[in-house]
Amino acid sequence: MAPITEVEGRRLPLSNLEKVLYPATGFTKAEVLHYYATVAEVLLPHLRDRAVSFLRYPDGPDGQVFFTKNVPPGTPDWVTTAEVPRSDGPSRMVLVQDLPSLMWAANLVAEFHVHQWRVQNPEEADRIVFDLDPGPPATIVHCCEVARWLRDRLAEDGIEAYAKTSGSKGLHLLAAVRGASPERVSDYAKGLAVEAEKAMPHLVLHRMTRSLRPGKVFVDWSQNAARKTTAAPYTLRARQEPLVSAPVTWEEVEECRSPDLLAFTAPDLGPRLTDYGDLLAPLLDPEHAGTLP
Fold first, then answer.
1. Tell me, what's the pLDDT at 3?
2. Fewest CB atoms within 10 Å of the CB: 82, 178, 196, 248?
């Protein structure tokens, strides 16, 4: 029988706690749950009121990996759900609103992916995101160069950008925005990606064409489409090590000379939160939201 724990009055069965989910380090499911409990205070505000897609990897990254968008079978009735628009019709998805819901979702073993809008108003985006994806031999070091250019370009339009690692090999750039539809934000993001390619043709690519990717940084502007989701801040990723999509300072971005300098695993996040708190907290403050030109 799976052990039962109680979280804020909710009873949760936890399964396979000794299972190794990250083969390179021996990181277990119990450690995954401990990680999410540790970062819950900073993670939950970035999940709250956003429909969550789960990229599940219950047997680790070498096992079956699959997306779950609809409410999974067996979801407790106390987990909040919401009907959200989809191109093929409305769908009911999970909202991770509190610690019990987070720990229930973490027990599924999943990455957390969210939209750039809240369920109360899916017609208005409240974030813009650029997913900077390096094509080898380019690395996150090259992503940092592109991120600095985009940061400065966004600042010209009065939009303040923040950075986090993707938890894989790239970098995410985020900013709070208001008053625009996902389509409008996506168009604006594409325009900046095209500008970046013109400014740095040796380094930047705004098209997804695989054959053009080697040695360049693909600026994926399409993540702003209403239907798309992006890995949430602080989520673990399905990799050989327990890598995290971790917020980083602009000083770290500017000084990055090696990919290892911006590779953070679950054990790194406790000390980073002590030192920095939530570096993405301004994204949650409406007063920091910019308006698209």
1. 81
2. 178
Can you tell me the distance from the alpha carbon of 205 to that of 94, in angstroms, rounded to the nearest whole number?
34
Cα separation of 190 and 193, whole Å? 5
In the chain, the amino acid numbered 176 is: A
Q: Residue 32, Cβ neighbours under 10 Å: how many?
A: 21
- Report yes or no: 281 and 172 within 8 Å, Cβ to Cβ: no
Q: Which of 155, 76, 72 is nearest to 110 (CA)?
A: 72
Nearest to 59 by CA among 38, 32, 36, 86: 32
| Total residues belonging to the chain | 293
User: What is the spatial distance between Cα 203 and Cα 276, in angstroms, rounded to a whole number?
Assistant: 31
Q: What amino acid is encoded at 149 in this protein?
A: W
Q: Which residues pair with 161 in a beta bridge?
A: 175
Which residue intervals of 73-132 are DSSP H helices?
Answer: 99-107
H/E run at residue 176: strand 171-180
Mean pLDDT (10-residue bins), the chain, 293 residues: 86 94 97 98 98 97 96 96 86 97 97 97 97 97 98 98 97 97 98 98 92 94 96 98 98 97 98 98 96 96
| Contact of 60 with 21, CB cutoff 8 Å | yes
